Amino acid sequence: MYEWIGTAWNALPEPLRDPVALAIPAFALLLAIEWIAAAKLEDGSRGSYSARDARASLSMGLVSIATTTAWKALALVGYTAIYVYVAPWHLPADAWYTWLILILGVDLLFYGYHRIAHRTRLIWATHQAHHSSEYFNFAAALRQKWNNSGEVIMWLPLPLLGMPPWMVFVGFSINLVYQFWVHTERIDRLPRPFEFVFNTPSHHRVHHGRDPQYLDKNYGGILIIWDRLFGTYAEEIERPNYGLTKPVDTFNIWTLQTHEYRNIARDVAASRSWKERVGYLVGPPGWTPAGPRERATADSD
Predict the structure, then answer these.
(1) How far is Cα 185 from Cα 193, in angstroms, rounded to an integer?
(2) Of 261, 27, 191, 228, residue with least CA distance to 111
């Protein structure tokens, strides 16, 4: 069976060997269905679309395809060197347990990176663009960041443990594809056993909420178990308000991607000591020398 899968995979053109590329037709179909459904809502409040907001999300997603490819090409060099010269063993790509380790390992590392991204301002600057939409729909799922450097570093343990580099990229793509469908208000609660183990639209609506009770919660990608284990889980009690705690009020995709870097540069330039400079870089969003303030931006993936 594994040989058949490998043969079929290798028969695909190189650009299509990414699960994200294979899923694009499904993304487009689901987005169209949701958009049509939203247009028929009487109040337009749940799952609704703004044409300008959706265009900004789709544009950022298209650019992210190119930037992610560039980051992966760079990472491939490092991962291959680690896999060939440093890894103490090489896991077989045709073994079921390798794929299990891959999926669980990528998801746990994604949880760790995602949590760091929300609590470290310099990394938050790369991630906040995904949370900048005040709508929660399939278009917002495609509002991806352009700087994947943090994730590239976070995946390093996988080739170090003997995971073939190409599998690392496939594993992350699978994780990303799964997360598309949780960006919707059209799906309510699912059966409790599923909600207990897996990330769902209800859990992810909490993550994208800018309400105080929802900030920095539900970081999981595929599994919500990590949040339950590490104390970052929150139940959806009422419909969240989405977006950043301090809205950017623009649909310019360059501004959406870069405004927080400019804010950091401004704060660092105005700092009076190295302690303050470091605090503005690695402290949580909203950090000031005098103590916490209203968060400059708020997240959700």
Answers:
(1) 20
(2) 228
d(CA 214, CA 265): 28
The closest alpha carbon to 118, from 207, 197, 233, belongs to 207
pLDDT in tens, 190-248: 999 999 999 999 999 999 999 999 999 999 999 999 999 999 999 999 999 999 999 99
**166 near 73, Cβ under 8 Å?**
no
Whether the pLDDT of residue 41 is over 70: the answer is no
Contact 143, 133 (CB under 8 A): yes
d(CA 21, CA 70): 15
Task: Evaluate if residue 295 carries a pLDDT over 70.
Answer: no
User: Could you tell me which residue, 24 or 169, shows the higher pLDDT?
Assistant: 169
User: What is the reported pTM?
Assistant: 0.87
Residue 2 Cα distances to 7, 92, 93, 153, 269, angstroms: 9, 11, 9, 30, 56
Strand partners, 223: 198
User: What's the per-residue H, E or C state across the chain?
Assistant: CHHHHHHHHHHCCHHHCCHHHHHHHHHHHHHHHHHHHHHCCCCCCCCCCCHHHHHHHHHHHHHHHHHHHHHHHHHHHHHHHHHHHCCCCCCCCCCHHHHHHHHHHHHHHHHHHHHHHHHCHHHHHHHHHHHCCCCCCHHHHCCCCCCCHHHHHHCCHHHHCCCCHHHHHHHHHHHHHHHHCCCCCCCCCCCHHHHHHECCHHHHHHHCECCHHHCCCCCCCCECHHHHHHCCCCCCCCCCCECCCCCCCCCCHHHHHHHHHHHHHHHHHCCCCHHHHHHHHHCCCCCCCCCCCCCCCCCCC
